[in-house]
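Suppose you are handed a protein chain with no further information: no name, no annotation, nothing but its sequence. What can you learn? This example shows the usual starting point.
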Amino acid sequence: MTYTVTKIIHFCYGHRLLNYDGKCKHLHGHNAKVEIDVTADRLDQRGMAIDFGDIKTAVKTWIDENLDHKMLLNKSDPLLSILKESKEPIFIFEENPTAENIAKLIFQKAKELQFNVKAVRLWETPEACARYG
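A reasonable first move is to predict its three-dimensional structure. Written in structure tokens, the prediction is:
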């Protein structure tokens, strides 16, 4: 059997989607909730799969520094030059900054930070989430 713990992190971001024919083609923002599932085969000497605080310290710090209160945009977005010139906080994606791609980015970053991540769910709204993993 495997143990799974889930850490929830909240952050705010703005984005828009290129090549999309709907409301999300316009700049808008979200109050996101991220659920990060981390697994372990056994508990440590404290009786923990992993300390929630360790996930928070590493992953939340990265999110706060890189995604929180930033405009997440595709590298081809024509607004990038204007926002850079205005010194607005941005994060550039190779692809469209969809909920799916944001979840994937956070999953990959958590892996880089040495967590045994099983899945990441990004809730863009209270009714809609994307899962990677």
